[in-house]
Amino acid sequence: RENFEVLEDRNNFDYVYKRADLANLAGRNYHKKRNLIAQCLKEHDCAYESYSPLLIPSLREMHSRRCAAHNCAESPGLCQEYLAINELLNQARNLDIQGGVIKIGGVVQAYALGSRLNESTAVVHFEKAMPKFKGLYQLINQWVCLHEFSSFEFVNREQDVGIEGLRKAKESYFPDHMVKKYVLL
Protein backbone atom coordinates (compact mmCIF):
# COMPACT_ATOMS: atom_id res chain seq x y z
CA ARG A 1 0.00 0.00 0.00
CA GLU A 2 2.73 2.45 0.91
CA ASN A 3 4.51 1.80 -2.38
CA PHE A 4 1.88 3.42 -4.60
CA GLU A 5 2.50 6.71 -6.34
CA VAL A 6 -0.63 8.87 -6.63
CA LEU A 7 -0.85 10.99 -9.79
CA GLU A 8 -3.58 13.38 -10.90
CA ASP A 9 -5.28 12.19 -14.10
CA ARG A 10 -6.15 15.58 -15.64
CA ASN A 11 -7.64 14.03 -18.77
CA ASN A 12 -10.34 12.42 -16.66
CA PHE A 13 -11.30 15.30 -14.37
CA ASP A 14 -15.05 15.94 -14.54
CA TYR A 15 -16.23 19.44 -15.45
CA VAL A 16 -19.02 20.59 -13.12
CA TYR A 17 -21.04 23.72 -13.89
CA LYS A 18 -23.76 25.67 -12.18
CA ARG A 19 -26.88 24.64 -14.04
CA ALA A 20 -28.22 28.20 -14.01
CA ASP A 21 -25.08 29.41 -15.79
CA LEU A 22 -25.57 26.90 -18.62
CA ALA A 23 -29.31 27.57 -18.84
CA ASN A 24 -29.16 31.37 -18.78
CA LEU A 25 -25.79 32.11 -20.41
CA ALA A 26 -25.88 35.51 -18.73
CA GLY A 27 -23.00 37.96 -18.78
CA ARG A 28 -20.07 38.88 -20.94
CA ASN A 29 -18.42 35.44 -20.70
CA TYR A 30 -21.22 33.86 -22.70
CA HIS A 31 -21.63 36.49 -25.42
CA LYS A 32 -20.25 34.19 -28.16
CA LYS A 33 -22.49 31.33 -27.04
CA ARG A 34 -25.59 33.53 -27.18
CA ASN A 35 -24.61 34.77 -30.66
CA LEU A 36 -24.18 31.21 -31.96
CA ILE A 37 -27.56 30.23 -30.52
CA ALA A 38 -29.23 33.29 -32.04
CA GLN A 39 -27.69 32.47 -35.41
CA CYS A 40 -28.89 28.86 -35.22
CA LEU A 41 -32.43 29.93 -34.28
CA LYS A 42 -32.52 32.55 -37.04
CA GLU A 43 -31.39 30.10 -39.73
CA HIS A 44 -33.32 26.98 -38.62
CA ASP A 45 -36.73 26.12 -37.22
CA CYS A 46 -35.52 24.33 -34.09
CA ALA A 47 -38.01 22.40 -31.98
CA TYR A 48 -37.15 20.90 -28.60
CA GLU A 49 -38.57 17.61 -27.38
CA SER A 50 -37.92 15.87 -24.06
CA TYR A 51 -36.39 12.42 -24.26
CA SER A 52 -38.71 9.44 -24.24
CA PRO A 53 -38.08 5.84 -25.32
CA LEU A 54 -40.18 6.58 -28.41
CA LEU A 55 -37.25 8.69 -29.66
CA ILE A 56 -34.77 5.78 -29.65
CA PRO A 57 -35.19 4.95 -33.37
CA SER A 58 -34.68 8.62 -34.29
CA LEU A 59 -31.64 8.81 -32.01
CA ARG A 60 -30.18 5.71 -33.67
CA GLU A 61 -30.75 7.21 -37.10
CA MET A 62 -29.10 10.52 -36.16
CA HIS A 63 -26.26 8.65 -34.46
CA SER A 64 -25.56 6.73 -37.70
CA ARG A 65 -25.69 9.91 -39.82
CA ARG A 66 -23.34 11.71 -37.44
CA CYS A 67 -20.89 8.82 -37.39
CA ALA A 68 -20.86 8.72 -41.19
CA ALA A 69 -20.26 12.50 -41.31
CA HIS A 70 -17.27 12.11 -38.95
CA ASN A 71 -15.99 8.88 -40.55
CA CYS A 72 -16.09 7.03 -37.23
CA ALA A 73 -14.72 3.84 -38.73
CA GLU A 74 -11.35 5.56 -39.26
CA SER A 75 -10.94 6.74 -35.67
CA PRO A 76 -10.57 4.28 -32.77
CA GLY A 77 -11.84 6.88 -30.28
CA LEU A 78 -14.94 7.74 -32.31
CA CYS A 79 -15.54 4.05 -32.95
CA GLN A 80 -15.48 3.33 -29.19
CA GLU A 81 -17.81 6.27 -28.55
CA TYR A 82 -20.15 4.98 -31.26
CA LEU A 83 -20.29 1.60 -29.52
CA ALA A 84 -20.88 3.21 -26.12
CA ILE A 85 -23.77 5.30 -27.43
CA ASN A 86 -25.26 2.23 -29.11
CA GLU A 87 -25.06 0.38 -25.81
CA LEU A 88 -26.79 3.26 -24.01
CA LEU A 89 -29.56 3.20 -26.61
CA ASN A 90 -29.82 -0.60 -26.31
CA GLN A 91 -30.25 -0.30 -22.53
CA ALA A 92 -32.17 3.00 -22.45
CA ARG A 93 -35.53 1.43 -21.57
CA ASN A 94 -33.92 -0.03 -18.43
CA LEU A 95 -32.19 3.19 -17.37
CA ASP A 96 -33.42 6.43 -15.83
CA ILE A 97 -32.42 8.63 -18.76
CA GLN A 98 -33.14 12.34 -18.86
CA GLY A 99 -32.46 14.57 -21.79
CA GLY A 100 -33.84 16.02 -24.95
CA VAL A 101 -33.53 16.38 -28.67
CA ILE A 102 -33.69 19.22 -31.14
CA LYS A 103 -35.51 18.57 -34.36
CA ILE A 104 -35.05 20.65 -37.48
CA GLY A 105 -37.61 19.96 -40.16
CA GLY A 106 -39.00 17.16 -38.02
CA VAL A 107 -35.66 15.29 -37.97
CA VAL A 108 -33.50 14.85 -34.85
CA GLN A 109 -30.33 16.88 -35.41
CA ALA A 110 -29.03 17.12 -31.81
CA TYR A 111 -29.46 15.36 -28.51
CA ALA A 112 -28.22 15.40 -24.93
CA LEU A 113 -28.74 12.38 -22.68
CA GLY A 114 -27.95 12.20 -19.00
CA SER A 115 -29.13 11.11 -15.60
CA ARG A 116 -29.40 12.12 -11.98
CA LEU A 117 -26.14 11.70 -10.06
CA ASN A 118 -27.48 12.87 -6.69
CA GLU A 119 -29.93 15.41 -5.25
CA SER A 120 -27.98 18.41 -6.52
CA THR A 121 -26.23 17.15 -9.67
CA ALA A 122 -27.24 15.84 -13.07
CA VAL A 123 -24.72 14.22 -15.43
CA VAL A 124 -24.69 14.66 -19.20
CA HIS A 125 -23.33 11.41 -20.60
CA PHE A 126 -23.62 12.19 -24.29
CA GLU A 127 -24.32 15.38 -26.19
CA LYS A 128 -24.19 15.30 -29.98
CA ALA A 129 -25.20 17.59 -32.83
CA MET A 130 -24.95 17.33 -36.57
CA PRO A 131 -21.93 19.37 -37.70
CA LYS A 132 -23.68 21.29 -40.48
CA PHE A 133 -25.79 23.35 -38.02
CA LYS A 134 -23.67 26.13 -36.53
CA GLY A 135 -24.70 26.87 -32.93
CA LEU A 136 -26.65 23.64 -32.46
CA TYR A 137 -24.28 22.25 -29.81
CA GLN A 138 -24.67 25.43 -27.78
CA LEU A 139 -28.45 25.29 -28.20
CA ILE A 140 -28.90 21.68 -27.08
CA ASN A 141 -26.64 22.35 -24.09
CA GLN A 142 -28.72 25.35 -23.06
CA TRP A 143 -32.13 23.82 -23.73
CA VAL A 144 -31.50 20.56 -21.91
CA CYS A 145 -30.35 22.55 -18.87
CA LEU A 146 -33.47 24.74 -19.09
CA HIS A 147 -36.01 21.98 -19.68
CA GLU A 148 -34.69 18.78 -18.14
CA PHE A 149 -32.29 19.65 -15.35
CA SER A 150 -34.06 22.65 -13.79
CA SER A 151 -34.32 20.93 -10.39
CA PHE A 152 -30.54 20.51 -10.11
CA GLU A 153 -27.96 23.00 -8.89
CA PHE A 154 -25.09 21.49 -10.88
CA VAL A 155 -24.49 19.71 -14.17
CA ASN A 156 -21.51 17.39 -14.48
CA ARG A 157 -20.46 17.26 -18.15
CA GLU A 158 -17.82 14.60 -17.52
CA GLN A 159 -14.22 14.58 -18.76
CA ASP A 160 -12.42 15.74 -21.89
CA VAL A 161 -10.26 12.57 -22.13
CA GLY A 162 -7.32 14.71 -23.22
CA ILE A 163 -8.89 15.85 -26.51
CA GLU A 164 -7.68 19.44 -26.90
CA GLY A 165 -10.74 20.71 -28.80
CA LEU A 166 -13.10 19.14 -26.29
CA ARG A 167 -11.09 20.58 -23.41
CA LYS A 168 -11.27 24.05 -24.96
CA ALA A 169 -15.03 23.71 -25.48
CA LYS A 170 -15.64 22.56 -21.90
CA GLU A 171 -13.43 25.31 -20.46
CA SER A 172 -15.29 27.93 -22.53
CA TYR A 173 -18.35 27.33 -20.34
CA PHE A 174 -16.41 28.26 -17.18
CA PRO A 175 -16.84 25.27 -14.86
CA ASP A 176 -17.73 25.95 -11.24
CA HIS A 177 -15.34 23.21 -10.17
CA MET A 178 -13.61 20.06 -11.33
CA VAL A 179 -13.90 16.59 -9.85
CA LYS A 180 -10.32 15.40 -9.73
CA LYS A 181 -9.40 11.84 -10.62
CA TYR A 182 -6.23 9.98 -9.73
CA VAL A 183 -4.14 7.06 -10.91
CA LEU A 184 -2.24 4.78 -8.56
CA LEU A 185 1.08 3.50 -9.87
Descriptors:
two-stranded antiparallel sheet, alpha+beta, 6 helices, seven-stranded mixed β-sheet
Topology of this structure?
Layout: E1 6-8, E2 14-18, H1 19-24, H2 31-43, E3 46-50, H3 56-70, H4 76-91, E4 98-104, E5 107-116, E6 121-129, H5 136-147, E7 154-156, H6 164-171, E8 177-179, E9 182-184
Parallel strand pairs: 6-7
Antiparallel strand pairs: 1-9, 2-7, 2-8, 3-4, 4-5, 5-6
Individual helix count? 6
Backbone CA Rg: 17 Å
Shape: globular
Question: Numbering strands along the chain, what is their spatial order in the largest sheet?
Answer: 3-4-5-6-7-2-8
Unreliable runs, pLDDT <50, ≥5 residues?
A: none
Largest sheet properties: 7 strands, mixed
Distance between the termini: 11 Å
Mean of all residue-level pLDDT scores: 95
Name the helix and strand elements from N-terminus to C-terminus, one letter apiece.
EEHHEHHEEEHEHEE
Strand portion: 25-35%
Brief summary:
The protein has 185 residues and is α+β, with helices and mostly antiparallel strands. Helix content is 38%, strand content 26%. It has a 7-stranded mixed β-sheet with strand order 3-4-5-6-7-2-8. Strands 1-9 form a two-stranded antiparallel ribbon.
Give an account of the 3D structure.
With 185 residues, the chain is of the alpha+beta class. 38% of the residues lie in helices and 26% in strands. It is built from six helices and nine strands; from the N terminus they run ββααβααβββαβαββ. The strands form two sheets. A seven-stranded mixed beta sheet has the order 3-4-5-6-7-2-8. Strands 1-9 form a two-stranded antiparallel ribbon. The chain is globular, with a radius of gyration of 17 Å.
